[in-house]
Amino acid sequence: MATTESPAIAVKDLFRLDGQVVIVTGASSGLGDRFARVCHAAGARVVIAARRLDRLEVLAGELPGTLAVRCDVAEDADLQTLVDRTLDEHGRIDVLVNNAGIGGPVPAEDETPAEFRRVIDVNLNAVFVLSQLVGRQMIEQGGGAIINIASMLGLVASAPIKQASYCASKGAVVNLTRELGAQWARKGVRVNALAPGWFPSEMAMDMFTDPASGDFLRRNTPMARGGEPHELDGALLFLASAASSFMTGQILTIDGGWTAR
Question: What is the pLDDT of residues 43-64, one digit of tens each?
Fold first, then answer.
């Protein structure tokens, strides 16, 4: 059936999230803070979650209509509370951004089993549990989009930077994304992942402030620099919006060419 809709109007609205309900975990700093601001600017009703409620409340004060929920993603009960409060407030969930994550350099021979399990709990197990809770709601309401924040280090080794648990967890997030995307595709739920390279954050700040680390980053990145926070905005909105309506189970890598070497 022919349409008279202007292509210019369709393009203008392609990345909008007007009226959609978006949950962003790990929103108290870094990329999560930025993701919440970007979704809000695109018209979404945003729910922000993290352990540091004081920081969330400051952010919520800058984004009118935003709901702040204290949440330790490693605690299943906190994840259930996050979903319940979102549904109580808004009645639906349209987009989930699984951004919360931890990690740090430690030689594999020195990393304790407890430390390894903690990283897996936060970076992987929590992604599955929250995706399952939200996915059930999205299936019931007829659709939605889940965006997992993986890492380029889920695609390649990080050595000489030693991060066995982080690489293992993010590699698992990559394939969990593919599996959930395939399982839920016919139920209207799209699951994709962003795999950022080096971007300023609490975990990666040494790569930008330490001279030797900065030199290593520039020498090994084809674009000879780290990413700037705004350089993930378009990719996030692409995966969250109707712009990627025929895309699921995919990993969008934004790394300045690091994994193309």
Answer: 999 999 999 999 999 999 999 9
Which pairs count as long-range contacts for 213-218, CB under 8 Å and 24+ apart, including other chains? none
Average pLDDT over every residue of 60-82: 98
The mean pLDDT value for 31-43 works out to 97
In angstroms, the Cα distances linking 190 to 50, 89, 103, 148 are 24, 23, 27, 11
* DSSP category for residue 106: B
Query: What residue type is assigned to position 201 of the chain?
Result: S
- Please tell me the distance from the alpha carbon of residue 173 to that of residue 76, in angstroms, as a whole number: 18
Task: Choose among 33, 77, 82: nearest CA to 55.
Answer: 33
Burial of 36 from C-beta contacts in 10 A (0-12 / 13-18 / 19+):
buried
Supply the residues annotated as catalytic.
166
Over residues 233-249, the pLDDT tens digits come to: 999 999 999 999 999 99
CA distance 195 to 6: 34
> CA 52, CA 131: separation in Å to the nearest integer?
22
Q: What is the mean pLDDT of residues 99-125?
A: 97
pTM over 0.90: yes
Strands of the chain, DSSP E: 21-25, 45-50, 67-70, 95-98, 144-149, 189-196, 251-254
For the chain, the domains span 7-254
Superfamily of domain 7-254 in CATH is NAD(P)-binding Rossmann-like Domain (3.40.50.720)
What is the predicted pLDDT for the residue at 28?
95
